[in-house]
Amino acid sequence: MTMAETADAERDDERAQSLEFRSVPLGEIETARSRHMWTRSAVHVASGGDLVVTGEWDGTVTAREIGSDSESLESRWTANHPDHAVGITTLESNGGAVIVAGRGETGTIAAYDAATGEQRWRYDTADDLGEAVKDTVFYLPYVVALETGTDVDGTERLYAAARRYERDGETRQWHSTVYAFEPDGTVRWTYETDASPITIELDDAGERLAVGYNRCMGDHDTGLVVLETETGDLEWNWDPGTEGDRRVGDVSFDGDSIAVSSHGDKRGYLLGPGGAERWRVDLAVETNLDDETLYAYPNHAHASDGRVTFVTGNTYAVESRETERRHPNEHRITTFDGDGELRWDDDVRGFVHGLTADGETVAAPCAQNFRVRDPETHAVRWFDLESGPIGIERLEGIATAADVADDTLAAIEEPVEYHDKGQTRGEYVLHVASLE
């Protein structure tokens, strides 16, 4: 670690809140390597903060009680999902259901009874997307996002986005579908394109669903669409207007505004109704360092109560994906006010697989920085939207998933072995703590 990185770590420790994690092993998983791996685990804290549900790469789904016992996380039930269990949410109506998103041969979305784990219904997105043409992870049908909310008619509904990739020589193609489900699993409507969705977000009123498309290489050539939840009809769309197929990394509603992280030009945007640009900020735009032009993707966005937060990822070079240098704004979290003025920023230091928030609290599970390979980056960090950094909990392994709800923080740690270090760090573990 360099002197500057050591100083960063010391500052982290000085400001960190102390958490008492309760932990439980999750079994075995292939050890991660220097480069960050795809999403392999999921965790969700149910509303009320008394139940945490984990999804594992082997398809195991486990619901655990979060009680006052300082040691145990008692298992309520375990179910076997037909695919890799890579996404989880819950429906509160009809006694409660745990919804699991899959990546695998069938790309299954399934609902499990929150009390017993019994499967209530199942939908295989491969029926719409088609089957994988190659037996590798990247080609498998993949439910990339789940969202729940109450529509204007008072019905709680589930929304999902799924995709499948295929390549034939120089021809690359995506197949994707966005779904609206009734609580019983009936499909209300679908929205199909030949682009790659990466995120969905429902507005607070339950009237509009925003869909962010990461890769557009076919007829669908826009990074953001906003759909009416009643019908699935297109209300409006927006695009950064950049060359190439990279478009949007994440979207987030705040009232009638939508925050967008742009993979096209590596900027952050706040849009108004109809896609009118309210402001934009440079996040990790192309920057010349010596003889290289470097950039980093803004991967995550969260907007709430007049605050907009973005998180950037790994450094890449325009001429080559390999570089020894680092973009000055890589692995950074920044928060702006409603006028686009910077409120605060901070280093997250490692790759963040996903951003989670509840009220004024934002949490980031930080994995490896594959260009530096420094285990000090392994941590869960949490922030206050108004004031910035609150705390950090360091882990031996890499933090790859997290969720926060009702002052409960849950995170999943996975083992990692850097290719030039020869040491396995950490284990496959669920950690749960109270933020009160």
From TrEMBL:
Gene3D superfamilies found in the cross-reference section: YVTN repeat-like/Quinoprotein amine dehydrogenase
Signal peptide: none
A Pfam family reported for this protein in Swiss-Prot or TrEMBL: PQQ_2
Span of domain Pyrrolo-quinoline quinone repeat: 76-262
Entries under InterPro entries matching the protein: PQQ_b-propeller_rpt, PQQ_rpt_dom, Quinoprotein_ADH-like_sf, WD40/YVTN_repeat-like_dom_sf
Name of the protein this chain belongs to: Pyrrolo-quinoline quinone
Organism: Natronorubrum tibetense GA33
Lineage of producing organism: Archaea, Methanobacteriati, Methanobacteriota, Stenosarchaea group, Halobacteria
